[in-house]
Every structure is written in structure tokens, then in C-alpha cells.
Amino acid sequence: MVKIFWCAEMLGCTFNAIYRISVLMEREDEADTIAQQLYESTGGEIRLALPLGLGKPLTLLDALVRGARNEPERKLSIFTALTLERPALSSDMEQRFLEPALDRLFGAYPGPLYARMLREGTLPSNVTVSEFFLFAGRWLGVDAIQQAYVAANYTHARDVLLDRQPNVLLQLVAKKDGQFSLSSNTDISADLFAFRAAGKVDFQVAFEVHPEMPFMQGDSAVLNANEADHVLHGTPDYNLFSAVRRPIEDSAHAIGLHVSGLIKDGGTLQIGIGGIGDAVAHALILRDEGKMQTIQRDCPFAQGGRHDAPFHEGLYAVTEMLVGGLLALFEAGIIRREVDGAVIDAGFFVETREFYKRLRRLPEDQRAKIAMRPVSFTNSLYGDEEAKRAARVNARFVNGAMQVNLLGDVMSDTLDDGQVVSGVGGQFNFVEQAFALEGGRSIITLPAWRMSKGRPCSNIRWTIDTVTVPRHMRDLVVTEYGAADLRGLSDAQVIGALLNISDSRFQDKLMAQAKSAGKLPDNYEIPKAHRQNYPERVHAWIEEHRRTLPAFPLGSDFDEIERVLLPALEELKMLSSTWRGKAQLLAASLYLPPHVKEREALLRMGFQTNKSVTARALQGALRRTVR
Question: Can you tell me the mean pLDDT for 327-334?
């Protein structure tokens, strides 16, 4: 009897698997049919408008790429940005940590076929891909993408696309009650549909419906069924991409705390994705809960005037990217100042699966307060400028940078050798707005230092080789050591202000370079109050308030043991690049007390014992990161 039930169960599983495979094959065949029709209707040459990030419909997109690969006389030109991929597992430690959890963390997301072919060098010559913003750091050293990168502000990318005369638009959408929502990507698509309705452009539209996409509203975000020439229904065989939230480092928490005091109640806010953006949002929540004064009282660094009172009027957010931090502020009731019925106006989103779920579960009237708009609205003042100025009062636009020089130039997207890390995106747009709006301020954030090849290096430098935001638009710069208000200052004053928030290990050299160039008086001295800018003081400050400043204040997809491993793996990566660091790891494994979760962490990484050199190094890193 048991065997009969077992066989029946196995047969049921087999039949289910076969049925699922057949459904997926039918769906792929349908996508190939749509691709064939698109090639036929365009004379075999498709100039594709493809949304950035989450809005790429992989099934339809891959069908177009296959169609061009299989018939070389066809041409496919793709203009897009932010091609999403799950991380490549290059090292043994990365494989041990991420491979067992890839689907859970990043979703079952294969990425576009063209991306895999670009990396393999197999993309045919009749398929071209140009991007105006790259997935940060993922395309370094890939010549085809580096050479095809188009430097453009986010607001100008639409016009670059229109100059290429797109004849097909593909997009991943949500569907409800016979209507489509552009959902994650109104950024450029909303304008394209408006231009098509006005007869200014003409292109065919193919939508792919995904059930995980939230049905978002906003001007031009919702379209009637007749807007699409082709629709691919059914359930895709992939999840939405999940941008895993990383732990917030001590320096990011400190930056968030400094920035929170620069935000005026009743004002306007924009923040970006990543640890610093999450830290800013969390600090604003602590401020609203009345917990900021205690934390700031213990701050070891000099501070100017701050806004630390809870929010009575609330904030309005206008942002190109809807991030988890803004959603958390909305859910906490801090973002509540309405402008034309919305408290958030945003252009696109790429976030965690939990974020998408929270958007889907919001009551419809609450979700409607998050309006998806084109970046021509969010990132600029052109068009209905009077209303935008009235709405965007006391604006604070918070964006991250990689490096700042002592004269106030900002580098956010490109390495010294010209390799593009990401792109300017909308950063310059918001800096420009800050100067155009009464009471507006641009806040550039960055850690004061980083590790490079096993050595600490300053992120505040005398010179930088590439510039994203030029010095004549210098405003507020914030590091873990405080805020420097640069607007309207002379060069010497700017240098002094930036030295005050630099890491003290590099201050003397930086000051000497400025004096050598004749930009500082020979007798200039850095004030004593700013001469103790060291990471140990940042750590001690944050550690004192660890219960209110955790590593994952906005939640995490990592489980308990993975959260233990994350700082240890960072420590291992930092120290293992030098012999001195390796010696420190070995010494820690021998002489420091064990981490309380050491056994579980080693097993999670596939180490049954600590006898191997790699296991011993990880053990040392775990012991060094015990709090």
C-alpha cells in the first residue's frame, strides 16, 4: 500500500512538472511568435526602447534576441540602462556563501539573454546594446559595454532615445481590470506614450504581464488595453529581480545621523538606494520617535545647528527612484505632506521582493498616494514650473558619491582610468534643482575613507580625474565625521571645511597639497576639534547605541547565521589581501575567544572542521567581528 501511494505521489509530481514545462514552452512559443510579427512589421530592423532595471520583459526580450541571432539579416538595436543580473560567484567564499541562497536572496531571475552573450563574447554583430546607466561595478572591464556607454543625464536620456527613432517598445507591466500599469518604470515610458498619443512618435508596443508587479498609479502610469499591440499573458518562469539589502556600516549610520539634522519639517526629500539611504531613513524615523537627542548628545564630532524635533507637518518626497527607505518613511507617517493627492512622486523602482509585496498589499487608497511619474517631472522644474516650485519647498536632495576633491568637485560614477562604474543618472538633475529652488540644498554623502589593496585611502582627495558634479555647484558634503556647508565659500574656506570632515590619518598630507598649490595660507591649521576624526571614534559612538542603530533597521533577506557571516566576510576580504592581514586573521583564530555562532557559521559555509587554511581564516574573521 505504501508503495502504491508513493508511486501515485511520484506520478503526480511528474505530471505536474510535465504540465508546467509544457505551459512554459507554449509561452515561449507565443513570445517567439510576437517577436516574429515585430520583425515582419518593422522590415527586419528593430530599434528597441527598453526600460531600465525591473521593467525589462525577459521572455519577450529574449525572443527578440534569439530572432536576430537565428537570422543574421535582421538588426536589433537596444537602448536601455541598468541591466540587472544576479551576482557572478567568482571566489570560493562567494560560492560557499551565496550559491545555496541565490534564489531566496535575488529571486529566480536569469537576467537578459543579451547580457549573458555579452559576457561570453557571443552576441552577434547584428545586435547592439547601448546603456546610459550601468549596474554599479558589474560592467567594469567589459569592452563592448564600456565602449557603447552613453553619458547622459536621466532627463536627457529620453531625447537621446528619441533621436534613435525607436519603432518598438517592450515593457514588463501589471494588469488589473483590463488596464495596464507601467508600475516600476514610468521614468521614460510615460513620456513616450504621451508623445505617441500626440502623434509626435510612432512605435509598436508589446507588454509582458507579471503577477508580482504592483499596480501603481500616477499621471500616465495607467494605460488602457488598446495601447498595446501585443500582450504576453500567463505566469513568467522568473521572479522579479530582488536588490538584496546590505548591512549598514558604522560610517553609514553616522552619515545618516548627520544628514537627518539637515532635513526641515514640512520640506521635500529625495534619497537614493543603498546603505546610506537606508541609514538616512532610519535616522529620520528615530528623530520622529524622539530618540535623536540622546544619540546626538554622545556624538564625538563637532556639529552645527540641527533640526532634531519630530515631524509635525511631515515631508513630501520627489525622487527618480522609489527606495525602501522612502517606503519606510511613508509607512511611519513621516512622508505625509500631500501635493495633488500624492505624498511621493517617483520615476522607477528596483528593490527587494519584500518591498514589492508591501506595495501590492497596501490598501488602494494608500498606494495611490505613491504616484509614478516620468523623470521629466521628478528630476526637473521644466513644465508647470510654478506649481513645482510651490510644492518643492525646503528641498533636500541626498545623493552618494565615490570621491570629492578639496575644491568641491564630485566624482560619483567613473574610475580614474575612464572605466564607468555606473553613470550620472539623475544626480546632476537634483543638484541643479537644489540651486534653482528657494531653500533647496544638495547633500552629497560619502565615507571619508575606504580600503584599497589592503590599505586605507582617503575618499577626499586633492584632485580627481573625472567629475560628475563640478565645483561651481558645490553645496553640502557629509561624511561620518560631520557636514561641510560649502555653498558660497571661497576656495580656501571650502578646503578648510572639507579638511574638517576628512579622516585625520590623511589631513596633514591633504593640507600640505593645498598649501603647495597656493590655495591655503602657509600658517593655516586644522582646528583641534576636527583633529580626532578616526574610525574608532565612529565605532564607539554607534556601538553605544547599537540597539537603536542595528545593521538591518529596514529588514533583511539574510537569515541569522548569514547576518553573522556578512561582517566576517568583509573582514576576511579586507585583511586577506596582505601578508600582515593574513597574520592578523591567523592570530585571531588562535588567541581570540570563539564567536558564539562560530560552529553554525563554519557549517553554513561548508566547513566541517577548521583545519583548512581558508576555514581558519574565516574563524579568525568571525572572532575579530564579535561585538
Answer: 98
**Average pLDDT estimate for 15-32:** 67
CA distance 547 to 30: 53
pLDDT band at 574 (very low <50, low <70, confident <90, very high): confident
Indicate the pLDDT class of residue 8, thresholds 50, 70 and 90: low
C-alpha cell read off for 337 = 505632506
- Mean pLDDT score across all residues of the chain: 94
Cell of 29: 512559443
Q: Which cell is 414 given? A: 567613473
Q: Where are the beta strands (DSSP E) in 412-475?
A: 441-445, 449-452, 455-458, 460-461
CA-based radius of gyration for the chain? 26
- Burial status of residue 121 (CB atoms within 10 A of its CB: 0-12, 13-18, 19 or more): exposed
C-alpha–C-alpha distance, residues 140 and 138, integer Å: 6
605: three-class secondary structure by DSSP: coil
If one counts every other C-beta atom within 10 angstroms of the C-beta of residue 364, the result is: 9
Q: Is the pLDDT of residue 165 over 50?
A: yes
CB half-sphere exposure, 599, CA atoms < 13 A: 1
DSSP code, position 217: B
Burial of 210 (0-12, 13-18, 19+ CB in 10 A): buried
| Residue-level pLDDT at 234 | 86
Q: Is 397 helix (H, G, I), strand (E, B) or coil?
A: strand
Rounded to the nearest angstrom, the gap between the alpha carbon of residue 556 and the centroid of all alpha carbons in its chain is 15
CA atoms within 13 A on the CB side of 55: 27
CA distances from 12 to 8, 17, 145, 237, 585 (A): 6, 9, 46, 20, 52
pLDDT over threshold 60, residue 118: yes
Q: Is the CB of residue 77 less than 8 Å from the CB of residue 46?
A: yes
Measured between alpha carbons, how far is 572 from 574 in angstroms, rounded to an integer? 5
Whether the pLDDT of residue 3 is over 70: the answer is no
**322-336, 463-477, 577-591: lowest mean pLDDT where?**
577-591
Cβ 138 vs Cβ 90: under 8 Å: no
Confidence bin at 19 (pLDDT 50/70/90): very low
Residue 14 — pLDDT band, cuts 50, 70, 90?
Answer: low
Beta-bridge partner residues of 127: 76
The number of residues in the chain equals 627
pLDDT of residue 107: 86
How far is Cα 310 from Cα 332, in angstroms, rounded to an integer?
12
Instruction: Give the three-class secondary structure for 317.
Output: strand
Distance CA 254, CA 117 (A): 42
CA dihedral (166, 171, 177, 183) positive or negative: negative
Residues 6+ apart with CB under 8 A from 160: 79, 132, 150, 152
* Residue 58 grid coordinates: 525577459
What DSSP letter does each residue of 579-618 carry, written as one string?
Answer: HHHHHHHHHHHHHSPPPTTHHHHHHHTT-SSS-SHHHHHH
Query: Which DSSP helix (H) or strand (E) runs through 120?
Result: helix 113-120
Short-list 374, 28, 51, 24, CA closest to 205: 51
- What pLDDT, in 10s, does the model give residues 425-437? 999 999 999 999 9
Which string of DSSP letters, residue by residue, matches 610-624? S-SHHHHHHHHHHHH
The pLDDT score that the predictor gives to residue 16 is 55
d(CA 417, CA 135): 18
